[in-house]
Amino acid sequence: MKKVSQIFFIVIMLVFSLDLLNGRDKVLKIETVVSPPKERRNSFYPGNNAPLLPSPLVKLPVGQVEPRGWLLSQLQLMREGLTGRLPEVSRFLGPDSGWLTLKGKGWEEMPYWLKGYGNLAYILKDPEMIATARKWVEAILRSQQPDGYFGPVDNRENNDLWPNMLALTCLQSYYEFSSDGRVLEFMKKYFRFQMNLPEESLFPGSWQKLRGGENLESVYWLYNRLGEKWLLELAEKIYRRTADWESPILTPERDQNFEESSFYHGVNIAMGFRYPAVYYQQKKDPELLQVVENNYRLVMDHYGQQPGGMFGADENIRPGYNDPRQGAETCTMVEFMNSFESLLKITGNPIYAERCEEIAFNSLPAALTPDLKALHYLTAPNLISCDSSGEHDFQNSGTLLSYDPWKYRCCQHNVAFGWPYFVEHLYLATSDDGVAICLYAPSSVKLKAGKQGQTVQIIEDTDYPFDEKVRTTVYTEKPVEFPLYLRIPAWAEKTRVSINGVNQAEVNQAGKFIKLEKIWKNGDQVEVEFAAPVKVVFWEAIGRVASVRRGPLWYSLEIKEEWRKCGGTEAWPAWEVLPASPWNYALVLDPKQPEKGIEIMEKKPLSYQPFSLENPPLILKVKARKLPDWKPEGRMAGRVPRSPVVSTEPLETVRLVPMGCARLRIACFPWLEK
Description:
The chain is α+β, with helices and mostly antiparallel strands. Among the domains are: 2-33 and 434-462 and 469-530, Immunoglobulin-like, CATH 2.60.40; 534-673, no CATH class. The protein has 19 helices and 30 strands. The strands form 7 sheets. Strands 18, 19, 20, 23, 24, 25, 28 and 30 form an 8-stranded mixed sheet that branches. Strands 1-2-16-13-9-8-3 form a 7-stranded mixed sheet. Strands 4-10-11-12-17-14-15 form a 7-stranded antiparallel sheet.
């Protein structure tokens, strides 16, 4: 009967009477769907123009989505931290930058930073930051030459168009914010330059060839605003000249020469794996979507057997180095998030929102200090010392783990766009002129919806991901009908839906959207509550070691942190973080009921910076025993022993904190049977 009830819920729309307080009924339709419709174009926001496939989800102009609560605090910390004040630190953002003088060198660093800094400025509506961003935008616009090329002279002499791909994204955001028509003409002229290049001269090698899909997305962006068909010819040329991301990323031949294989570079994988799906919008071959998923699974099954959404590539994937001590570059995190955000819009599939959230809540916060004034190059699920010694078995030498505002050249600049882009994808316009809430966080949005494009405001009140309730309030001057989509997380065993305080349905269709169709009135409220039981995941490929998650959060052993200055300046210090408590514990689990005995120990109100060991919002407790034979290797944790293990040490209760709160962490555990 339960299965029949579920099928009935999916196939048949349930109709409820609402608005009884007003003395009249309004029809509400509730159903679960895999995605918004894919057959039409949103009437008010520029998704794909024909003949490109319609966009089921469309990004709103930057600045329309506003963060609140803990998410706003991340952006405010960014403004006061490394991103907002990077010109004080970075040698690439001074007055001698080639992006300002057009005579000297200027590679990826400035547009990497501006890509995030500009969007941060527009979201916060900070006049001083906007003026700084505009200074760099104006320099880009001034740099265009008669044939359409733009940027520093050195890049042209090296025939390197990679930095320009980043600059184009900066211009697109600036246009969305300002409606400055110069951007469209600038991009059109530049794409004519690319169209006129001999094919062999377009992306001849290096990063530009591997990352040409970034250029492709910008061509589609312009086509969707101008509709000029020659841009689609250029898109085909760009895809032909981009490296082959349709073939399997990992192969035995590349394994043998991984140090020379640019396909094994973590950042390249995080960006490039999505490119076939970008081109799918034009070619319309579903096989291209399957290629993307196949490559994602290939990488994650071999090197992503770990919590937090990332894979081990310390700077490259290295065959044999697939355990949770292998770090992910901070650049890889934000680029992986960006790929999932792009795939979400192209496909409408909520799994990509899920994957983006996993990185944002569990991996990205630990890549920086809690005040967001310093970062490190690599972050790993099992990381017991963020020191500056270099005594770690990574591909690169030198300090890679200490938190330093002065080093880590690419990540220092590129980390800037992680949280701003996340904010922009909280709400997306749908192809049927509604709105989809795709990523959950305290926030608000104003957008046009319904047949007449009426402006509505939606405010989301929640402590998610630290709480499972999300309350959404709709504000409108007059009643308006439009569909509202709410993502059901894949981990949610059940989802309760109530409207205006009245329980409407209980859904157990995880990994889909709830679609609500209603004539919305001012002040209407929708509340969803997701059941988030504790789960234990066993990673079979790395010795059946265990990780603990609850809802969108993975958990780490609480290791006390000793912070020591190790360089820098008074204003911008560098830090080592060293362990001040034991880390080599094995969890005591019943393999038949592994979640039994893992309980919530403490739940606290959110602090201004919840991603900190100082005040973790949610703490779990579990029984464990020390494992004396699990010892450090240099300054790294030893490889996690294959489980189950044996220990005669005393039984203890240990605390588990959200991974994003822990700079030192053990999140992949050995375990022993009760």
